[in-house]
Amino acid sequence: MPSIALILIVVGCAEDPVQPLVDQFPVMPAHLPTMPYPVGNTITPAKVDLGRHLYFDQRLSSEGTIACASCHRPEKSFSDAPNQVSMGVLGARGQRNAPMIVNAGYRKVMFWDGRAGTLEEQAMGAFLNSTEMDADTIAVAALLRSDAYRSKWLDAFGDTLVSMTRAMQAIATFERTIVSANSRYDRFNRGETQALSEQERQGMQLFFSSRTMCSSCHGGNDFTDDQYHNVGLFHHYFDRGRYNVTKDPLDEGKFKTPTLRNIALSSPYMATGDSEKGLMLTLEQVVDHYNDGGTPFPNKDPRVKKLGLKDPEKAALVAFMKALTDSSVLTNPAWQKP
Ligand code: HEC
Ligand code: HEC
User: How many angstroms is it from 98 CA to the middle of ligand 1?
Assistant: First the structure.
């Protein structure tokens, strides 16, 4: 059916930037890349709805106190700001900073060290992890078979066969709907030249320049290359990062480049929220860190080196990152607790 295919392509590339893609549910802003839905976990409205209920349901944790949303809260752009590390069941403390899950559906690897490949696998990790939800799968299965979930489950999967794998598929499907594309930076890119101030435009130029090299790692639509780098935070890494997965000494202290979308909303910064010089609480501190060239470490990426930025240039970089805030994410009714 070439004519239909042609229509889809024409609509997808239409001039109007908010023209929805007709071949996708949910309606994605047209200037975002196509969301990759995995084979075997197609998206339907019923599955998204089930996933949303599960995402916010504390009864999934062993103590009935923790949901995914406890550490990835909509009003904090799905991070756990201002907590450096998160509190799981019975007050168990994790060791890493909870990332935002905005646009997480586009990530090629999950977790700071990439130990999960998909959102489905990732969700299962958090669900079973003893310091996060520590789920009792027998109790959760009973909950999913109860009146609370029976009809939602049937709508989502077409039968009542309950499994944790399917529950995580529903959560992952909900997560794939959480997308941000309406910051002032996005609007500027869509032709609203007044959306960024002069200072923010100067910061943008610096960010994308060979002088700072920021965008060589924080590149692409979500400001990440989905690769691991050591940015010189410590002389000694207690959390060895990617090394824990590969056991390759060259991966010591390397972490996945995080997205910078809504970055102003998710302090503290870095995988452990920390650095040798102290907590990383502000974007100003992060820029100072890069400008100073970081703490020496054998694996430190050569792009992290003294930059010689002047104060107004540092301020411009920070201003640019703040222009990546899309506050509609925080209040979108589709992503709130049902
Ligand atoms: C107790 C707090 C806590 C709970 C509960 C929790 N998470 Fe997380 N989440 C974290 C932390 C901390 C990390 C980073 C851990 C790491 O990288 O090792 C993380 C990482 C993630 C990531 C990876 C993002 C990326 O860019 O790599 C996703 C997605 C995610 N969580 C979704 C979920 C889902 C879905 C649930 C519920 C099934 C959940 N989380 C429950 C704290 C939590
Ligand atoms: C060599 C790749 C690389 C370069 C160059 C780079 N970054 Fe990063 N950035 C990373 C990685 C990797 C992390 C996470 C490091 C960690 O936690 O150990 C990070 C973390 C950050 C964070 C904290 C994000 C969060 O969610 O905690 C900000 C903000 C940031 N970088 C901004 C910048 C700016 C601004 C520049 C340019 C001055 C820059 N980066 C240059 C790779 C890079």
Answer: 6
Q: Which of 284, 271, 272 is nearest to 322 (CA)?
A: 284
pLDDT tens across the length of the chain (338 residues): 333 433 333 333 333 344 433 344 566 677 788 888 898 999 999 999 999 999 999 999 998 999 999 999 999 999 999 999 988 877 777 889 999 999 999 999 999 999 999 999 999 999 999 889 999 999 999 999 999 999 999 999 999 999 999 999 999 999 999 999 999 999 999 889 999 999 999 999 999 999 999 999 999 999 999 999 999 999 999 999 999 999 999 999 999 999 999 999 999 999 999 999 999 999 999 999 999 999 999 999 999 999 999 999 999 999 999 999 999 999 999 999 99
Q: Is the domain of 168 the same as that of 196?
A: no
CA–CA dist 105, 45 (Å, integer)? 16
- Domain coverage including residue 272: 184-328
Span from the CA of 291 to the centroid of ligand 2 (angstroms) = 12
Task: Give dist(CA 210, CA 213) in Å, integer.
Answer: 5
> To test ligand 2's pocket by mutation, which of 96, 97, 231, 235 has the most ligand atoms within 8 angstroms of CB?
231
Overall pTM surpassing 0.90 (yes/no): yes
Pocket of ligand 2 (CB under 6 A): 212-214, 216-218, 229, 231, 233, 255, 257-258, 260, 263, 266, 269-271, 283, 286-287, 290, 301, 303-304, 317
Domain boundary pick from 158, 179, 200: 179
Q: Give, using CA atoms, the residue closest to atom 22 of ligand 1.
A: 111
Pair (231, 306) in one structural domain: yes
Q: Are the C-beta atoms of 288 and 314 separated by less than 8 Å?
A: yes
Q: Residue whose CA is closest, atom 8 of ligand 1? A: 126
How many A from CA of 191 to the centre of ligand 1? Answer: 35
Atom 13 of ligand 1: nearest residue by CA position: 98
